[in-house]
Amino acid sequence: MIKLSNMADYAVVLMTHIAIRPETVHSAADLADETHIPLPTVSKVLGAMVRGQLLMSHRGTRGGFTLAQDRASVTVSDIIQVVDGPVALTNCLEDGVGECGLESGCHARQHWNKINTAVEDALNSVSLADLVPSVPDFFAASQKAEGKESQPF
Question: Which fold has domain 6-145?
Answer without folding.
Answer: Arc Repressor Mutant, subunit A (1.10.10)
